C-alpha cells in the first residue's frame, strides 16, 4: 500500500509545513501542531474527493441526468456546504469544541482504568489482517449510520434539522453535505465516540469517512444509474437513495407535527440493514425529490445558507 499512501503523506506534509504550521506559530498556537497536521490530512482528503467528483461523477451527471438542473442558486448553496465540510472548516470547529471535549473525557476514563478495546482483535489471526479489519469497521460504522439515519426521520426534533437535507428539490453530487450544522455536530460526535469505543485507528477512520463521503456524493448525484439486480443489494446506488428522497416517502411531519408516512432506504453505504429490517424499496423509479409540506403547503426551508440554518432552528423551536 506504500505506493498509494506515499503521495497522500507527501501532500499532507507539504500542506502542513507550507501553510498550517506557519499559521499556527503566527497565531501563537504552536501547541496545536498535532491537530493542525491531522487537519491537513482532512483537507487533502477533501480536495481529492472533489477532484473525483469533478472528473468522474460530474461527467456522469451530464451524460445520464435524471432531470434538467434549473435552480442554480440551490446548486451553489450545496457547493458552499461541500466546501465548508471538505476544506476542513467544519472539522476545525469540531476540533476545538465537541471533539476536544470528547477526547478529554475519554482521557479521564482511560486514566481511571477504563480498558482499551479493539474490535479488530476479537478473532486473532483473522480480524487483525488489515483489509479484514477495515471491512469489519466499515460494516459496524454503516449499521450505526443506518440507526442514526432512521432516528433522524423518526424523531420530530431531529427531523426538524434533518429536513433541510431533504429540501433540495434537484439533487446533485454536491447535495450530500446539505445539512443543518447542529445535525452534523450531533452525528459527528456519535460517530467519533464510536470510533473511540471500538478502537478505530486514525488512519482507518479517515479512510472510512473518505470512502463513505465519496459514495454519498455519487448517491445524491443527478444521474440515472442503478447497479443491477444483484449489485443493488450489495451497495447503495443513486437510484436506491433517490427513492429515499422522493416526495412523501421519508418520515415526514405536517405543520401540526403529525407523522405522515413511513420511510425507506435509510442505508448509507450498504442496503443490507434495510433488507434485514424491512425498510428496503428496490423499485426502479426516479421520482421528484423534496419534502411533502414544502411542495403541498409551500413551507419555507430557506434559499441561502444562513436562511436554511435559521429556518432549521425555527422548526426545532416549533416556530416555522
How far is the N terminus from the C terminus? 51 Å
Task: State Rg.
Answer: 20 Å
Overall mean pLDDT score?
Answer: 90
Q: What sequence of helices (H) and strands (E) makes up the elements?
A: HHHHHHHHHHHHHH
- Beta-strand portion reads under 5%
Count of DSSP H/I helices: 14
Q: Segments where pLDDT lies below 50 for 5+ residues?
A: none
Describe, in plain words, how this protein is organized in 3D.
- The chain is mostly helical and 320 residues long.
- It has one domain (68-316).
- 62% of the residues lie in helices and 0% in strands.
- The chain has 14 helices and no strands.
- The protein has helices at 2-26, 33-63, 72-86, 89-95, 98-111, 130-154, 156-166, 181-198, 202-219, 228-231, 238-245, 272-277, 292-296, 305-316.
- Helix 2 (33-63) runs parallel beside helix 9 and helix 5 runs parallel beside helix 8 (181-198).
- The longest helix is centred in the N-terminal third of the chain and has 31 residues, at 33-63.
- It is globular and about 55 Å long.
- The relative contact order is 0.11.
Amino acid at each position: 500500500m506504500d505506493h498509494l499512501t506515499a503521495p497522500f503523506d507527501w501532500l499532507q506534509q507539504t500542506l502542513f509545513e507550507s501553510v498550517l504550521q506557519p499559521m499556527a506559530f503566527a497565531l501563537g498556537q504552536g501547541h496545536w501542531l498535532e491537530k493542525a497536521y491531522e487537519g491537513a490530512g482532512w483537507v487533502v482528503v477533501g480536495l481529492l474527493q472533489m477532484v473525483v467528483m469533478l472528473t468522474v461523477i460530474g461527467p456522469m451527471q451530464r451524460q445520464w441526468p435524471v432531470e434538467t438542473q434549473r435552480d442554480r442558486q440551490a446548486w451553489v448553496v450545496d457547493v458552499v456546504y461541500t466546501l465548508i465540510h471538505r476544506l476542513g472548516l467544519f472539522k476545525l470547529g469540531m476540533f476545538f469544541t465537541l471533539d476536544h471535549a470528547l477526547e478529554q473525557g475519554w482521557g479521564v476514563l482511560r486514566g481511571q482504568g477504563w480498558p482499551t478495546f479493539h474490535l479488530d482483535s476479537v478473532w486473532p489471526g483473522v480480524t487483525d489482517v488489515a483489509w479484514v479489519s477495515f471491512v469489519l469497521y466499515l460494516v459496524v460504522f454503516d449499521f450505526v449510520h443506518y440507526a442514526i439515519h432512521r432516528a433522524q426521520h423518526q424523531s420530530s426534533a431531529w427531523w426538524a434539522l434533518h429536513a433541510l437535507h431533504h429540501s433540495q428539490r434537484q439533487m446533485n453530487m454536491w447535495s450530500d453535505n446539505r445539512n443543518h450544522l447542529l445535525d452534523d455536530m450531533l452525528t459527528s460526535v456519535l460517530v467519533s465516540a464510536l470510533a473511540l469505543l471500538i478502537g478505530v485507528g486514525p488512519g482507518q477512520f479517515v479512510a472510512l469517512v473518505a470512502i463513505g463521503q465519496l459514495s454519498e456524493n455519487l448517491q445524491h448525484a443527478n444521474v440515472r444509474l442503478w447497479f443491477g439486480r444483484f449489485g443493488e443489494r450489495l451497495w447503495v446506488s443513486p437510484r436506491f437513495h433517490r427513492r429515499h428522497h422522493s416526495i412523501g416517502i421519508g418520515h415526514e411531519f405536517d405543520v401540526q407535527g403529525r407523522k405522515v408516512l413511513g420511510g425507506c432506504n435509510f442505508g448509507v453505504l450498504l442496503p443490507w440493514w434495510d433488507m434485514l429490517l424491512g425498510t428496503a424499496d428496490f423499485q426502479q423509479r426516479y421520482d421528484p425529490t423534496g419534502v411533502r409540506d414544502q411542495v403541498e403547503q409551500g413551507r419555507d426551508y430557506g434559499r441561502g445558507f444562513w436562511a436554511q440554518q435559521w429556518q432549521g432552528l425555527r422548526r426545532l423551536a416549533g416556530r416555522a
